[in-house]
């Protein structure tokens, strides 16, 4: 009887050790931070981090709410240098017409409150390293305030 109890305890310990080692593992890093627009927390928008041209394609992004964003490790990025892109449509401004360059019809969109240097091709980058802090804060000044 004692041998059976010892076996049961041993099996339970082995099962717990195996189960503890089977959790999700990732080499990706979480990323978080804040975004201000003209000194105030950005009420809403999106942020994306993209690999640079010519490098292995990687991308991660999140919504910005009340000036904060967070990307969990499972959806994060590997260490490296990434291009930052942000967007925050101004729904109170009159729409602007876009498209039509190739003969297709133009359509209205809300103008972006984020200036071009934080949009596609703007050149803002972050360096994400395993040893560094993965918290990146951005102070954005709108085009009208420059």
TrEMBL record:
This is Carboxypeptidase regulatory-like domain-containing protein. It comes from Lacipirellula parvula. It comes from the Bacteria.
